[in-house]
Amino acid sequence: MQFCLCFVSLALQGRYCQEIGIDANRVAHMYFFNGLASAIFRAVTGRLCDIKRNIPIWIMRLTVLVSGTLVILMTLLSSYEQLLACFVVYGMTDGAFASSMNISVLSTLSMKQKSQGIGFFHLCIAITLVAGPPFGGFLADLFGSYNPAFYVAGSVQILAAGILFLTHCTKHGDTIAVTGIQAEIIDKKITVLTLKYTQTLTD
């Protein structure tokens, strides 16, 4: 759900700013600082996730909630400085979410599963990421304004954050069920048991 419309604001932000009278050069600066903030916070988040095991899921919850709120808030801002600040913070949440998400996915896979698992995961989310911006453009054309597209995108992200926060109510919501190391150990134990069972049958 988060991936369906998370890129709508990035794809439509430039046209939206031009619609409210912000110069194209300034819009380019906004994208530059957005990307810079995203890159920095990917590294910072990776370091934070090294410190404590349960941090990735909380980072995902908070960043999805904040990013959804920011997307809706953008429609209420009109000055370049306000939109720049909002867009930079959005880049920070994007970078933090990306790192924490990848770490969460990789930590649930064994060493044998990592290469195929992470590749298949990104294949799945790529399909939804590609579909999001065209749908946002369709909404903008349908209503004659970019605001509805931002409202829908922000609302979906807030709903996705709500679902992530609901996992906190489950028994193991804040723990990773099986870490990569644990999964690898389990794989080895299963292999050993299988070999012993096969040897017993042959004997």
Automatic annotation (TrEMBL):
The keyword Cytoplasm does not apply. Keywords: Membrane, Signal, Transmembrane, Transmembrane helix. Residues 1-17 form the signal peptide. GO terms for molecular function: transmembrane transporter activity. It comes from the Eukaryota. Gene3D superfamilies: MFS general substrate transporter like domains (1.20.1250.20). The keyword Signal applies. The chain crosses the membrane at residues 57-76, 82-106, 118-136, 148-166. This is Uncharacterized protein. The lineage of its organism: Eukaryota, Metazoa, Cnidaria, Anthozoa, Hexacorallia.
